[in-house]
Fold this protein.
Amino acid sequence: MFRIFAPCYFLLKLLLVIAFPLVAQAQNKGVAKAPEGMVYIPGGPFAMGTNEQDPGGPNTSREFADANPRREVKVGAFYIDKLEVTNAQYKQFCDATHYPPPPHWKDGTYPAGESNVAVYNINWWEASAYAAWAGKRLPMEAEWEKAARGTDARRFPWGNDWDASKAVWGEKKPQAVGTKPQGASPYGVLDMAGNVFEWVNDWYDAYPGAKRHFPEFGTTYKVIRGGGFMGYEFIAFTYYRCVARPQTRSEWIGLRCVKSAG
Ligand SMILES: [Ca+2]
């Protein structure tokens, strides 16, 4: 009997070994295929912006008013870097292309011991070129905000209450990436509040339905999101919009990339 059924048992076992991973892969389509170092963000609607008003009154600043009103925005599924781009990653780009290293580097490389520090002092054009070289692109502003706050309109990546211990905060310059896992966004993306601001693709312009318009709106400034390493807590709001001219290089600004998910 054993001689008859042993081959059958072997074939059945082989089939199970082959079939189970294929089934599991099919069930996790999209999530399972996330490129290394990236996180899958599902497509669909989320609450973007805020209805909060500037704390000092309607004519004091644009801390919140430029993120008014809160509205439903739909994005397609995409992947986003779990971490900000590091010095070591950016050096690979500089070495492989003719793009110059950040101006504070010496002899074409970053300061010793800072391979895992978020890269900074790169302008929007250089950030875009890095993303393309990596087979990715800069996030649309809506994509960045969904990755930071999920679908429940929270103020910070981790919830609604400020907690400086959950972000790289109170520092004098950018730090190593990914050191605050307790500050992860609902999707597990890190440093969406704190450490460097991150270039996004969009020009700084009024949201649909905005009641106030600011002279900075238009095609002069790009939006930067998710800073910084010190400052007022409103800077860490998931909907806070900061700006910089695309040619700006600053110790406050780095990047992370996204990739559309088919
Ligand atoms: Ca950041």
Observations:
- Strands lie at 38-41, 44-48, 71-75, 78-81, 197-203, 222-225, 242-244, 253-254, 258-260.
